[in-house]
User: Fold this.
Amino acid sequence: EEFMQGEEASFFVLCDGEAVLPIGTAQDHKRVGEGDTGPNTGGMGAYSPAPVLTEAVAARALDEIIRPTVEEMARRGTPYQGVLYAGLMIADGAPRLVEYNVRFGDPECQVLMMRLGAQALDLMQAAAEGRLDEIRVNWAEDHAMTVVMAAEGYPGDYARGSRIGGLDGLPETSSEMVFHAGTAERDGQIVAAGGRVLNITARGDSLRQARDRAYALVDRVHWPEGFCRRDIGWRALD
Assistant:
């Protein structure tokens, strides 16, 4: 089996059975440790857009990989409607397909939703109703980053039930948001109920600004039993 070299990124499109509409790119960090070390996880953070997926690379991926797939499915009488997530390996400006997923990724979904905002619902409804050729994505020239806070010990054994403080004072705006992943409420307190527990997410005019805002929110969470990587986005920022 051939080993694929390059940099991996995620390309998200909506399909309505015929038309294909790109809705964003992202990169995530699978390894638990800083510098992309240690065991794999479900994802310790992500950012959007993915710099490695330039307009030229995205155009090639659409023309050479994604559109032919969707067209062939329609030709076979099995048209696909919904979210299509192409995991791509990019080397020397050439994209190659690693895998397809018929879902939003996690934690990539969080940064996409922050950038898409309320129009996400309209876009998905258009895909369901076969109207993607009538609609377009209104992109702001922005960036988004999400930092995953996980229970100490993850992805190995970890304890549940530790209290998480400081969440009530965090903002919920179009630029800053905390997505709960593995939490529960007990006796009026938010407690950890999983491995990956919180997704601290922020937007900014630049990736650096989005990162600074996200980590500023992380530092306001009081959870001694939790941890996060402090280098999310290093590929794009270094």
